[in-house]
Amino acid sequence: MFKLALRTLRLRKGGFLATFVAVFFGALIVSACGGLMETGIRSETPVQRLAAAPIVVGGQQALALPEEDPATRDPDEKQKFEHATLPERVRLDAALADRLRAVPGVTDVVGEVSFPAQVGAASAFGHAWDSAVLTPYALSGQPPKPGEVVVDAGLGIGIGATVPVAAHGVIGEYRVSGVAEAPQAMRDSALFFAASDASRLSGHPGKFDTIGVFGGDVAAVTAAVGDAGVVATGVERGVFEFPEVGKSGEDLVVLAAVSGGLSAMVMVFVVAGTLTLSTQQRQRELALLRAIGTTPRQLRRMVLGEALVVGLLAVGAAVALGPVLGNWLFGQLAANHVVPDVLRFEQGWLPATVAAGASLLAVVAASFVAGRRASRVRPTEALAEAAVERRWLTPIRLVTAILCFAGGTALGIVTVAVMTGPVAASTAGPAVMLWAFGVAAISPGVTKVTAMLLRWPVQAITGVNGRIALRNTRVGAVRTAGAVTPIMLAVGIATANIYLQTTQEAVSNQAFTEDLRADAVVAGLGGLDPSVLARVSAVPGVAGASEYVTSTVFIEKPFDSGQADDGWPALGVSELSGTAVVVPDTLDRRVGDTLSLRLGDGTPVDVRVTAVEHQRPGFERLVLPAGLLAPHTTLGLAPQLLVRAAEGVDTATLTARLREATAGSPVSVGDRDTLIAAHAKGNEIGAWVNYLLVGMIIAYTVISVVNTLVMATARRRREFGLQRLSGFTRGQVLRMAGIEGGLIAAIAVLLGTVVAAGAIVPFCLVVTGSLLPSGPLAVYLVVLALAVVLSLGAILVPAWAATRGRAVDATSIGE
């Protein structure tokens, strides 16, 4: 039967190409997403500043949190922990360097500090000159003394010049004592200071960001470090140099998993629909094979053989090109700051294997579905079965639909009853997929019912052509459903994901602005010097000013079951002092209670609840003193001040006075709109990722729609010929085909809208209290227009080609 399968493929190039395209693009996207996932798991970052140190010691950025309350846990059971990633850099005590020097075999130990700095208009990172050997840099000139600096060769500053350097909230004049040149390309320019200046400007005296160790045994160094840090060698050293890579890698894994899994599920339906349609167009051929004695098993083997031949070719091409697409997608993510540009794209054999296996599994499953129906007819019914499609609802379709609808309903109930705020999207997203797949499983029946509902308006507008198009749609419901399903998937997924994102953005912006009383903002490079607060507060027309610090903290005691590994968003303000904390009422704490926290860099601290307030659901946070929170952030200082104008002082006057008061300091002054725009920009990264995901799915479904409709319409050449011989003009046939395309688009849009509503409505009820999402109507209109254009174009173009010749010639062409 496999030989017969190979021979039939040569005579059915249209079906061969359609199946090839469906499998190829599905496997291509899955393979590319697999590469992104492997990149996130590996998180390999080329070492730059620390390249010369064979062993690097860094801070422990992981925090172990108990999964259950230790007070109520069964003492006979082992305590389970989940590991959270600390958001701020964890630094090392300088005393650790002295211990490492005593390790046998260690020849040198070098501590490294790194802090943002700016020389003129150029951004750079400051370091102590002693740490230049970690790269190593080649020096022209002299090492820096206090008050001097060695500049990166790429900055183009000559020896002997005096330059202003802004760092740690202040500007100082430094004489250039030398020029340093790196042995390789570096992402960031470097400024090297004397050790005393670097310690002061880093804001963390007596601390090192990392420690480079030369010589010695890795095991001995690890034993000497103990719990004080983490030891890395090889490519793992890059994570200490670029700590943002760790969190970005986790996010990339989640993104790739969601995108790849979603693409794989869509591929199953698209490939199944394409193969089913291809097989249905051969019903007469298959029926004749049954009539001459071919067994059902042989027929299934033939269909499977054809599908596997096409699938292997498509998967082979997709696996070869998967890294190309994956690398391009990774480049787009890096260009839009979703992942650090220092992260290196890696794709080995495993993603290709997984993509190939998933794609071939989809092909096998689809061929089983496609061959099962034709193989089960009795030989005596074969020819009649080839003429009319009678059955489409199988037990597998019915069970799949019931399970998907039940799952979608359950997720909707959970969204409304349990979830709060933007976190509700975690259940709303999967819900739209379940609703979509449930509708796809019974799409022939749903398509027929929807077509009946549209009968009166279609007939009233289109007349005879519309009546014939409606009959074609109802009689060929299975064929029509093959075109409706991918458009429905595209409309439902695109509409739901885009409006979920726009609603989240609107709610986030509203939550940020509804309690915002600031009229201006003062932001500093590398943080604000504490003296700026006093200067700003003394400006005429300022009613109040507060430092504004954001971070993440973790509650250790009492046990917080709702914290997970994300921790609590924390806000630092100047109105609080000491160890006071304001908590949301959802935390179920009372004034006077004590909380044991871990700050963003892992520092433990006990705080006392001084107030409990109601906060917007989904946006709860702990409010702490800025003086407590800021020193435990990576910058070590508050990044900005929020300023409120006194009554009768306009924003323009306020900002002008603030610029005058902060002249000479490395700060920028903006109005309220600047602050809101900066917050909105922070949401753009998440939006861009979501739109990329939607774009990939839409692109794939667009290809499958065109693929399916072109194949289905091209095979109707004989039908069109018979209509023309019975009195139809070519224009009437094309109008009928156009009406069918419009019907397909209308049915798909209606079903896709229902699918999207199944996820959007529960989500909006939770986050906004409304049934309708936030976002421009133009988004939905564009999706609708795209569906119509695709349907009409993919039907009219092949119909125009199929009706070009003489009608009598078309009727002589086989099935």
Automatic annotation (TrEMBL):
The chain crosses the membrane at residues 252-277, 307-329, 349-370, 398-420, 432-456, 477-500, 688-714, 743-771, 777-797. It comes from Amycolatopsis nalaikhensis. It is found in: Cell membrane. Keywords: Cell membrane, Membrane, Transmembrane, Transmembrane helix. Its main location: membrane. Coiled coil: none annotated. This is ABC transporter permease. It is a multi-pass membrane protein. Residues 260-377, 692-803 form the ABC3 transporter permease C-terminal domain. It comes from the Bacteria. Pfam families: FtsX (PF02687). Belongs to the ABC-4 integral membrane protein family. PANTHER family: ABC TRANSPORTER PERMEASE YTRF, MEMBRANE COMPONENT OF TRANSPORTER-RELATED.
